[in-house]
Amino acid sequence: MKPHDNQASLLPRIIYIDWSTMLIFSFFSLI
Q1: What DSSP character marks residue 9?
Q2: What is the C-alpha to C-alpha distance for residues 30 and 22, in angstroms, rounded to an integer?
Q3: pTM of the entire structure?
Q4: What is the Cα–Cα distance from 24 to 30, expressed in whole angstroms?
Q5: pLDDT in tens, 1-31
């Protein structure tokens, strides 16, 4: 049960990091 919960928590984190990276890339592209 615990490993499954950890995996589920990891997915949103990866998505959040991906979003942050995309935002940073957009910012750099604008400049």
Answers
A1: H
A2: 12
A3: 0.43
A4: 10
A5: 565 666 667 777 777 778 888 999 999 998 7
